[in-house]
Amino acid sequence: MDKKTEPGNVQDVDAVIIGAGFAGLGMLWRLREQLGMSAQVFETGDGVGGTWYWNRYPGARCDSESYIYCLTFSPELLQEWNWSGKYPEQPEILSYINHIADRFDLRRNIKFNTRVTTARFIEDTNRWEVETDQGDRVTAQYLITGIGCISAGNIPAIKGLETFEGESYHTGAWPHNEVDFTGKRVAVIGTGSSGIQSIPVIAKQAESLTVFQRTPQYTIPARHETVDRKFLDEQVKPNYEEILEKARWSKAGFPVEFSERLALEATAEERQEAYEAGWAKGGHGFLWGSFKDIGVDRRANDTAAEFIRAKIREIVKDPVTVEKLLPTDHPLGSKRALIDTNYFETYNRENVELVDIRHSPIQEITPDGIRTEDEDFEFDMIVFATGFDAMTGSFFKMDIRGRDNLSLKDKWAEGPKTYLGLQVAGFPNMFMITGPGSPSVLANMTVAIEQHQDWITDFIEHMRTHDIEVAEADADAESAWVSHVNKIAESTMFMLADSWYLGANIPGKPRVFMPYVGGLGTYREKCNEVADNDYEGFVLNAGVRQLAT
């Protein structure tokens, strides 16, 4: 360890970055290479990758197509890297991120196996003081979080959890060695994204698989396959910048056209034709390529929802299982949009059983397995696909304190409050990449991440050029943004489901809609307007002299 980072010594850098996934690595490259700043990255894991370092469960892959799920600061890398699948799978994404870290010599600024425990803004010096579980003490003008929106795993506090004598895993903290399900009686609790991806894979290996489902899901076939190399070589790579620019200004970070057709103005035959085409093509295009009013009109939404329910009835053979799988209590798209490979088909396997825990709740975990209200089950393994404490959970793993020693956890006691999802009033010079109040989880994540990285880089460059020492979100601007985020959400289907967007999966968490649903392109416009208006909504200060408000 360098002498200046030994316990008891204080290292001084321009910026501390927390996390070494896509967010942290891209931010490090920009600060170091574009602005010539010194930066220290702290990463809890022993390698880069963020989400893709921890989420190694069977079947894990991204639901954005591979050619658009990438960092774009290097045109050469865009041309040289070749993906093997239509959707990038976890091992390949992790290989890609490691390649970026090595190619751009980023590891020398990263300290691994190190968790940030505290970060305090020191008002006398206008600097952040950061401490880690390894004894590091670092001061920095800027604190930048790249800790992920859905990276704090959540295992429900089920009675008897600690008594289980078999193997247990959470999909978001999967071991690095291969888990062998051969000959094992396996339980999977949860049917969100990680459950839907892992269940078909586990079912092929396990002696038996029992799925414990709370909420039936709408899910569209991914139509995952090997990548179309001709498409990449002839249509994507020669036109990458045009494709990326279209994605950056689109609603969801994809280079696609959203349909302007209205389901309620189409005939039943026209709707059926559109839905069949979307189902055959697969992926998220089913939603944005069919009808515009699906997301805002419940009557229109019902036409698409019933189409999917009909598909479930067609695919799944057992009528009792079919009824358990039919989503009826929430609109299509009100929870995270899901795409799958052979999910519904898996329930036709003889070794797979579905338990509806709304009708037969889990009472406790026993040494041998799981006890529901109706039955005792014996298992060798339990897989918790129970999701995450989204948007805020990763922040609360650290003690972050701003002005007047105010903790971020106390500031967000009634739900997260941010300005643009980028800063929090009372926490100067702290920038969040894809924080609450941004559109990140509702868009192609890498496009959303890079928008934040570029905007933060430009802001810091502006501060350095104009000798501005401190930038802080104005409290009134923050309140107005929180109100705006919630107002536009109220007109959508998102408010009609108990989802992690609202924190509904975490007992006691305030029910506040956290992402921005206005679309990534619209959000980009708003952020650019703020910058063009001399960073309106921020208080900019050079020591004791206020420069702008």
Describe what you observe in this structure.
The chain is of the alpha/beta class and 549 residues long. Helices cover 30% and strands 17% of the residues. The protein is built from 16 helices and 21 strands. The strands form 5 sheets. Strands 1, 2, 3, 4, 5, 6, 17 and 18 form an 8-stranded mixed β-sheet that branches. It has a 5-stranded parallel β-sheet with strand order 7-16-8-9-12, with helices on one face. Strands 13-14-15 form a 3-stranded antiparallel β-sheet, with no helix packed on it. Helix 14 (445-465) runs parallel beside helix 16 (520-532). The chain is globular.
- Describe the biggest sheet? 8 strands, mixed
User: Helix- and strand-based class?
Assistant: alpha/beta
- Average pLDDT, all residues: 91
| Oligomeric state of the chains present here | single chain
Question: Into which percentage range does the β-strand content fall?
Answer: 15-25%
N→C terminal distance:
42 Å
Number of helices: 16
What sort of overall outline do the alpha carbons produce when their principal axes are compared? globular
Helix content: 25-40%
**Rg of Cα set:** 24 Å
Low-confidence stretches: 1-5, 544-549
Number of E-state strands: 21
